[in-house]
Design goal:
single chain; 7-stranded mixed β-sheet
Length: 270
């Protein structure tokens, strides 16, 4: 299954349908960000702590799989130099709609979040990756590539879906019935029936995957990052929110003292 191609089309359709993560921010939020009053989310509800960001003015930020006209315009209005890489052309267009409306500069690049080869080493001060790992079948390349393109001392901010979310039958969850059905790791394409997959296709729902905590946490450590902080979050729209935090986010940092050559040379891969 080519997740990249299918999910590109699916997210374009989500934009047309007005999915909440595709709706551009308001003029009021941009005006507030220009005045230094801004916040963004990596997960559905909780604002990212201010302490996770260095001084944002002049910061070089990569919004990784974060198109949609929401986080990138806020960063740009607050004074950052912003590049967004996203798999969906229409999600990227949402950022440009706000940029044009507000006189902001945002660089938009269509691409797979697992491939950052177009960027040279030491390109960014910060990478901002709101919940999107669930739309790709493998995560290690994301962390390795992010480490390479971050400057020494750079930060990686990621939002994740708790893998426990995927053990339940989704249809029954919408009826507040908690039936354990799926063995992890989960993928729509391997765990659902043909009829269920056709239903997802007919409604233009992106295909999803789960990843182990080992992949999501140790994957960052193996890439060379130090995890500095984390928080958990819920979504009031998720029936599981009364039982467990369905989402979490991590702040990871690239060692300021380790050179790019030290961590990308042949010896580091042995």
């Amino acid at each position: 299954m080519d997740y990249t191609a299918y999910n590109r089309h699916a997210w374009d359709e989500q934009v047309k349908q007005g999915n909440e993560w595709t709706v551009p921010v308001s003029n009021e939020l941009i005006a507030a960000a220009r005045d230094g009053d801004w916040h963004v989310v990596l997960t559905p509800q909780k604002h990212v702590p201010n302490s996770w960001f260095p001084c944002i003015s002049g910061l070089s930020i990569l919004g990784l799989a974060s198109g949609g006209g929401q986080q990138a315009p806020i960063f740009a209005a607050a004074g950052a130099r912003v590049t967004v890489l996203d798999n969906s052309p229409l999600q990227l267009e949402q950022d440009q709609i706000v940029a044009c409306r507000e006189g902001l500069s945002i660089t938009s690049i269509l691409g797979d979040m697992r491939n950052l080869s177009q960027f040279p080493p030491d390109s960014f001060d910060l990478i901002f990756n709101p919940c999107s790992m669930s739309f790709i079948p493998d995560t290690r390349a994301v962390f390795d590539q992010s480490y390479r393109v971050l400057k020494p001392g750079g930060r990686l901010l990621c939002g994740f879906t708790n893998p426990a979310r995927f053990i339940f039958d989704e249809d029954k969850l919408t009826q507040n019935q908690f039936q354990v059905r799926h063995k992890l790791p989960y993928r729509d394409t391997t765990h659902l029936t043909h009829e269920e997959l056709e239903t997802l296709r007919s409604t233009n729902e992106p295909f999803m995957c789960s990843h182990s905590l080992e992949d999501l946490i140790a994957g960052q450590l193996k890439a060379g990052f130090t995890i500095k902080d984390m928080f958990e979050d819920v979504s009031d729209k998720d029936p599981l929110a009364v039982f467990l935090p369905v989402y979490f986010a991590t702040l990871a940092e690239k060692d300021a003292k380790r050179s790019i050559e030290e961590n990308t040379g042949p010896e580091s891969k042995q």
